[in-house]
Amino acid sequence: MEQEQNVQSKKVWESVKYYVVRCANCSKWRFIPTKDKYEEIRANMGEKLFQCETAREWRPQISCEDESDVEEDDKFRWAMDRPRIPQSPPRWQRILRIRAEGGTKFADVYYVSPSNKRLRSMVELNRYLEENPRYLREGISMSEFSFQPPVPLDEKYLAKRRASTSVPLDEKYIAKRRALASATLLAGPCPELKNQNDGTVGPEAKAPAQN
């Protein structure tokens, strides 16, 4: 199936509107300008803690003395990423789609290959790489992918979800999620977004979540 050489990659719409990371020194949130940079920081979170000074790469004057770029409020739907999720291989896209509130799963994660093939699990990914060994020859491996979704910070959403499994919600559970240092700010299922076709809205779009 190596007939995908000259397919042009499309930018796929996803639920993420902003990327933020918490400074390890002052605990303030800083906007990350691009998805690629965010994935790079997240992948190295265990070995290299993010600090405000790190953001001087794109904001030369930033420091811990400046106010937080964003606060944890109800203007956005927050999703806390687990650290060390690998950065997507070049020309591959890792896409997050939020599900309706109250469901059994918060979000779906899938990858879009350079040929625009959507892959929704490690099983599908492994099969695709076997059918298209040129990616393996390029050095791409299964270890560069993760389908682990982020954790919603919305306590009401979590309570509703965990009640269905008869597991009590406690403060330690919430605190553990708040301690995660990288997050995506999501626009929820908004009427104005439902009719968008893939490729028309990217992660740099700015739309607050609807309650």
Strand adjacency order, main sheet:
2-1-8-3-7
Tally of individual helices:
6
- The biggest beta sheet, please? 5 strands, antiparallel
Q: Level of helix content?
A: 10-25%
Task: Compute the CA-based radius of gyration.
Answer: 18 Å
Mean pLDDT: 76
Question: In one word, what is the shape?
Answer: globular
Instruction: State the order of secondary-structure elements, H for helix, E for strand.
Output: EEHEEEEHHEHHEH
Describe, in plain words, how this protein is organized in 3D.
By secondary structure, this protein is of the alpha+beta class. The protein contains six helices and eight strands; from the N terminus they run ββαββββααβααβα. The protein has helices at residues 35-43, 122-131, 134-137, 155-163, 171-178, 191-194; strands spanning 16-22, 29-31, 77-81, 93-98, 107-112, 118-119, 151-152, 182-186. The strands form two sheets. The chain has a five-stranded antiparallel sheet with strand order 2-1-8-3-7. It has a three-stranded antiparallel sheet with strand order 4-5-6. A hairpin with a 6-residue loop joins strand 1 and strand 2 (29-31). It is globular and about 50 Å long. The N and C termini lie far apart (45 Å). Mean pLDDT is 76; it is low at 158-170 and 187-211.
